[in-house]
Amino acid sequence: MTTNGTHPIASELKIRTLEADDANRALELSRAEGWLQNARDWENLIRWSEGGAYGIEDGNTLVAVGVCCSWGNTRGRLANIITHRDYRHRGLAKVIIQTLMRTLQKRGVSVIDLDANEDVSKMYAPYGFVATHDVDLYMGTPKTAVPVLKPNGTEADIDAIINLDTQIFGAPRPLVIRDLVHGPDAKIWVDREEEQLNGYLITHRHDSFIKVGPWVHHDPTQARAMLEGVASYYQGAKIRVDTISANPHAVSIVKDLGLECFRQCQNMVLTSGGKPPLRAQAYFGIVAPTVG
Ligand SMILES: CC(C)(COP(=O)(O)OP(=O)(O)OC[C@H]1O[C@@H](n2cnc3c(N)ncnc32)[C@H](O)[C@@H]1OP(=O)(O)O)[C@@H](O)C(=O)NCCC(=O)NCCS
């Protein structure tokens, strides 16, 4: 790597793929931005990327990172693009984004999306990304008086959950779902009618809060009942739910529980590939802005 546009880049900067044991160094970059990710989130993301996580190093210092994931060879996603503050405006993010786009193109991915920090969304416009819906991250200690809903999902539900996630998210993410249900203190709620799975919700324990997501249901009334019962189960604990504005029911449910939006992102899609087949009306809580 030598030059990029008008910004000279030092010849000692090298780009390479990131492995799981780079998680802690990548974490330093996301922590510096105040993002609520931990080492496990990075390890998962690097594994889910299947060789699509990249970092630029200056000697032994990781100074820029970015990750892409693909599902079912048609749908791809960019995530966690960060440049160390001392290295900004020298074209490093551009190099990372171009590398991620090439990786996804080689995999034959036609639809690519991402959840951009609102103030940075313009950075993606030159690639053809256009804004779709908002992604709002909510956190708080819910106020609820409804009866506790105990986790009722088991290992035996995982295949049905993966199938429903594929229908609603619009692409198969078995690796993501399996890692989430085996996460720290993970719990599963399912709403089943005989063999039919109508909805599900997964939680896991994060550093200082309970992360909810995915939270999926075909029926908004049942989706509300599910989250309220889960909130009662976690009485007194802080919970986090990441919603999409394309599902206004989800936004009102979390607001009614007293959760507050602490960060806003903008979902953007590369239009040349068409729209992701997301069924937003049943997608109440996403996994995270990293993987949608
Ligand atoms: C956004 C960020 C990754 C840019 O990194 P960088 O290495 O300084 O970016 P580059 O120098 O490669 O700039 C690439 C292009 O994006 C543009 N750009 C850079 N930062 C931008 C910003 N904050 N908003 C809008 N455009 C931006 C540049 O003008 C440049 O365009 P050009 O080629 O036409 O000059 C960096 O500021 C950062 O890490 N921010 C905090 C984390 C973050 O918000 N990441 C994005 C998550 S969606």
| End-to-end Cα distance | 32 Å
User: On the 0-100 scale, what is the average pLDDT?
Assistant: 94
Q: Could you say which structural class the secondary elements and strand pairing correspond to? A: alpha+beta
Radius of gyration over all CA atoms, rounded: 19 Å
State the major sheet: 12 strands, mixed
Number of strands: 14
Number of helices in the DSSP assignment: 7
Fraction of residues in helix: 25-40%
Written overview of the protein:
The chain is α+β, with helices and mostly antiparallel strands and 292 residues long. Helices cover 27% and strands 34% of the residues. The chain has two domains: 3-109, Aminopeptidase (3-Layer(aba) Sandwich); 137-285, Aminopeptidase (3-Layer(aba) Sandwich). The chain has seven helices and 14 strands. Strands 3, 4, 5, 6, 7, 8, 9, 10, 11, 12, 13 and 14 form a twelve-stranded mixed beta sheet that branches. α6 links the parallel β11 (210-217) and β12. Residues 2-8 have low confidence and may be disordered. Coenzyme A (COA) binds at residues 5, 33, 81-83, 88-94, 116-117, 120, 122-123.
Short description:
The chain is of the alpha+beta class. Helices cover 27% and strands 34% of the residues.
Main attributes?
alpha+beta, Aminopeptidase, binds coenzyme A, two-stranded antiparallel ribbon, 12-stranded mixed beta sheet, 34% strand, globular, 7 helices, 2 domains, 292 residues, 27% helix
